[in-house]
């Protein structure tokens, strides 16, 4: 059963690729009905972002990339040509019965079709309309396109990631996944839920939400940005180290890397005991959190030499016994096989109409009274077109005419 948290909320998802579809997926996970609108024939362009591509029951590749599957569970798919008047009328009919519209078209595009917020609020004043764009709806770059990597670079996120200048492999580094897209999806979800609460609890009306990937990338810098705002000094990159207490980073052991954090004085004392170096706690350079941060480089040179003496498993046993937070640096296979991850039930299997059993990550939100249930599989292109049109009152002849005109 789907979650009851957002039961009765209908989301009209006009978006493609990643940031906005992820936000719509989150709302679907929480129980909203999500109707995904795709181009007839082609569908969401993320379907082509492969390999790898999903395989059907016979082991043959389908047209759906894994990239698309990551952002479109718990949705129904209808195909609509927004450039055709008949298609625009379908969108208006859906908007009339929806609570939320999500779109990520280039600024001004949907206004040409009469499907922008100002137009759709005329048919539904209670509509929450969320636009996700690269640079937002205003400003000198509002018309420019952009993708995650561009915003990792422009926001300063890349400058915070990577090894220090002068170190082997030093320099700014893009985060491996599309982190700005993912962060933007969470900001957008929070904004939509806030707008729904304002409307339904405080008696407000609909409203417009302007989300920009650049804004979200910059906001994600959090304490890293605050360090600069307080000091006026550009913070250095720490590589695999953190910006809080020291040590807080990865270390090379005899066989592989581990990551550990001894972020306060008590943890550092236990850590020193675990590595058989109690003298470090007595050293004035390392005897307090502030001193360790100020003398970070000196301490890390000592610890690098200590940690390489034993295997990762040996160190992890010692650190666990000393109650010092630590983990092996896992790859994805390691992470999914971890007993804690398996206990938390972070994988689920759904029935895909073409592939059969399909493994998906599970939403990590765990609600006691409105739990997130089993997902429905990401839909194939236009899978629910007839069903959705019938729900709008379109009869068989009208649907056939729409298909003949390629409006759907």
Automatic annotation (TrEMBL):
Highest taxon, organism lineage: Bacteria
InterPro entries in the record: CoA-transferase_III_domain, CoA-Trfase_fam_III, CoA-Trfase_III_dom3_sf, CoA-Trfase_III_dom_1_sf
Enzyme Commission no: 2.8.3.16
Family matches, as SUPFAM superfamilies: CoA-transferase family III (CaiB/BaiF)
One Gene Ontology MF term: formyl-CoA transferase activity
Keyword set includes Repeat: no
Keywords, ordered alphabetically: Transferase
Protein name: Formyl-coenzyme A transferase
Organism: Terricaulis silvestris
Phylogenetic placement of the source organism: Bacteria, Pseudomonadati, Pseudomonadota, Alphaproteobacteria, Caulobacterales
């Amino acid at each position: 059963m789907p979650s009851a948290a957002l039961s009765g909320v209908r989301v009209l998802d006009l978006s493609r690729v990643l940031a906005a579809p992820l936000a719509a997926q989150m709302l679907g996970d929480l129980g909203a009905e999500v109707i995904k609108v795709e181009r007839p024939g082609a569908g969401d362009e993320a379907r082509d972002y492969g390999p790898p591509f999903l395989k059907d029951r016979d082991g043959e590749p389908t047209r759906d990339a894994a990239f698309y599957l990551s952002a479109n569970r718990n949705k129904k798919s209808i195909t609509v040509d927004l450039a055709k008047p008949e298609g625009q009328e379908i969108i208006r009919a859906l908007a009339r019965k929806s609570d939320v519209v999500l779109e990520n078209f280039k600024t001004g595009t949907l206004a040409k079709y009469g499907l922008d917020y100002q137009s759709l609020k005329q048919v539904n004043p209670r509509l929450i309309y969320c636009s996700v764009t690269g640079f937002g709806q205003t400003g000198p770059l509002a018309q420019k396109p952009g993708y995650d990597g561009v915003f990792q670079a422009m926001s300063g996120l890349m400058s915070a990631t990577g090894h220090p200048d002068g170190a082997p492999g030093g320099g700014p580094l893009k985060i491996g996944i599309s982190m700005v897209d993912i962060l933007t999806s969470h900001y957008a979800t929070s904004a939509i839920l806030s707008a729904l609460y304002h409307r339904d609890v405080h008696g407000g009306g609909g409203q417009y939400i302007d989300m920009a990937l650049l804004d979200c990338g910059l906001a994600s810098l959090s304490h890293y940005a605050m360090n600069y705002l307080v000091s006026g000094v550009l913070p250095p990159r720490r590589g695999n180290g953190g910006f809080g207490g020291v040590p807080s980073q990865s270390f090379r052991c005899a066989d592989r890397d581990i990551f550990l954090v001894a972020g306060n004085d008590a943890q550092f004392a236990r850590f020193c005991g675990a590595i058989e170096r109690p003298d470090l706690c007595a050293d004035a350079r390392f005897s307090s959190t502030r001193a360790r941060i100020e003398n970070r480089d000196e301490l890390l040179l000592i610890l690098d030499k200590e940690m390489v003496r034993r295997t990762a498993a040996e160190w992890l046993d010692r650190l666990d016994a000393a109650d010092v937070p630590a983990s092996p640096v896992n790859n994805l296979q390691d992470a999914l096989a971890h007993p804690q991850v398996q206990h938390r039930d972070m994988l689920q299997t759904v029935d895909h109409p073409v592939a059969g059993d399909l493994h998906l990550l599970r939403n990590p939100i765990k609600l006691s009274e409105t739990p997130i249930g089993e997902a429905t599989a990401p839909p194939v292109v236009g899978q629910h077109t007839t069903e959705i049109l019938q729900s709008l009152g379109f009869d068989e002849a009208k649907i056939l005419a729409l298909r003949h005109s390629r409006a759907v």
